[in-house]
Amino acid sequence: MTKCTDPVVLDLWHPIGAIAEAVPGIAQQTVLLEERISFEVGTDGSPIVWRSRPDMQRADQITAAERLPAKNAYGYVWTSLGAPPAELFPIPEYAEPDRRRLNAATFGVNVSAPRAIENFLDMGHFPYVHTDILGAEPHTEVKEYDVEISVDRDEILATRCRFFQPMASTASDGGADVDYVYRVPHPYCSVLYKSSPVDESRRDVIAIFLQPVDQEHVRAHMLLCVLDENSEDKVIKRFQQTIFGQDKPILENQVPKRLPLDPRAETPIRADKSAIAYRRWLSQKGVTYGVIPAAA
Amino acid sequence: MITLYDYELSGNCYKLRLLMSFLGIDHKTVPVDFYPGREHKSEWFLKLNPLGQLPVIDDDGLILRDAQAILVYLASKYDPSGTWYPRDNPALLGEISQWLAFADGITGTASAARLHDALFYDFDIEAARAGAHRLFRILDEHLWFGEQEGRGWICSAAHPTIADIACFPYIMLSEEGGIPRQDYPAIRRWCDRVKRIKGFVVMSGVFPAGPARAAA
């Protein structure tokens, strides 16, 4: 596979690692868009990112000209191989002081980033893949919901999603109809809002930030930003890892691995409305990396 | 009551959850943040197991480590039917031990490949995958010949033993390490038989058997 030449994807901010798991002064290596990248997080949380080279092992050896764009946002280090916008998409809830903010995990997954986003948006699989947690038979119907592509914010918004969930989160004490809102504010990132079991006026936030290693492999970073005063961090993480571990074999068995953008390539059903909008949005943006573009 | 120090995505921990479910043993779980927290290398955990590995159980003050060792202990103590680890059958015990060691080999190859791909462990991935395929080929042949003799399980018995439990998880999870199973039809049939044992439970990444019934 050749390295990424997609200008849209090159100019995006991409997550490359969790701040909480970085040791100040120790450089880590990862792969982004088929390029080896090194990063180090300072004691103040500010990251320094550079293209890996044998003679550049530590951040203090890196001149300003050799540094890649870098950001600390939502608990992760973000960088770009192109010319990224000044700001990353907003998640205002992240700043609310009473929320638990955790990286549930960063997992390597043998899937393209867009396929992983589609799976994240799909409610139809809840009863079958996340049985007795996010869904249960016979409550299998995906009820009508709304999807819009917001031109102002350049993101996809799916609202009025409702699903019966036996155990929506670590703070749940039984089954409930749960409200969902999905945002796709970035071709490889999605943010989910779901009713909080502890405060009916607020929503838990769960985001998936996909780091494209290449067109068919990602590192999936899972942000939790939830209301839960009681559960230990590791219990909250375990819940989300359990769910993701159930999705993993499904993701890794998707064929073809890249997401086909031709509307005739796969047959959607009504429940796939958000996926249809997502594919159209990627086409409109001209994304070619991790997808099979529609024939011109 | 038994306390299991557990990580949801660990196949070795799952072995114990499986046996305890088959035997109907009630237990308490203490979650260990194996990843990303590396809690199995923390000071408190190293006091339980200086090897820094999961799983560990505490049964009324008896602390044991190593999935295979714990399978032996639990089956010896809590299986009234005496079939999972038949203490009165030396030949079968020898066979079981042989396959428990084989299961350790699966952990060293198939599980290592999964840790490399999913959790970024710095292992020789090609060696891990090749090693797993070698073991899978051996097990597939063994199971195929067993089927010809009317035997459905790994050891020479009319019922499953802890050897089946020990080998099952990291075979089922092998695709997460880039090790497909399509060349091992006897393994795939055996996996379905394990999934149909009464009391079977899943873990993340392992799905229940389909609705089709096994041949009578």
Description:
The complex is a heterodimer of chains A (296) and B (216). In chain A, the strands form 4 sheets. In chain A, strands 8-14-13-12-11-10-9 form a 7-stranded antiparallel β-sheet. Chain A is globular, with a radius of gyration of 19 Å. Chain A folds into 2 domains: 7-79, N-terminal domain of TfIIb (Single Sheet), CATH 2.20.25.680; 92-292, Naphthalene 1,2-dioxygenase Alpha Subunit, Chain A, domain 1. Chain A has helices at residues 7-10, 113-121, 126-129, 233-252, 273-285; strands at residues 14-18, 28-32, 35-41, 47-51, 67-68, 70-73, 76-79, 100-109, 146-150, 155-165, 176-186, 189-195, 203-214, 217-226, 259-260, 291-292. In chain A, a hairpin with a 2-residue loop joins strand 13 (203-214) and strand 14 (217-226). The mean pLDDT of chain A is 94. Chain A has 296 residues and is of the alpha+beta class. Chain A is 17% helix and 34% strand. The two termini of chain A are 22 Å apart. Chain A contains 5 helices and 16 strands. The model of chain B has no long low-confidence stretch (mean pLDDT 96). Chain B is globular and about 50 Å long. Chain B has a 4-stranded mixed β-sheet, with helices on one face. Chain B has helices at 11-23, 43-48, 67-78, 90-119, 125-148, 162-172, 185-195; strands at 2-6, 27-31, 56-59, 62-65. Chain B has 2 domains: 2-78, Glutaredoxin, CATH 3.40.30; 90-195, Glutathione S-transferase Yfyf (Class Pi), Chain A, domain 2. With 216 residues, chain B is of the alpha+beta class. In chain B, helix 4 runs parallel beside helix 6 (162-172). Chains A and B meet through strand 8 and helix 4 of A and helix 4 of B.
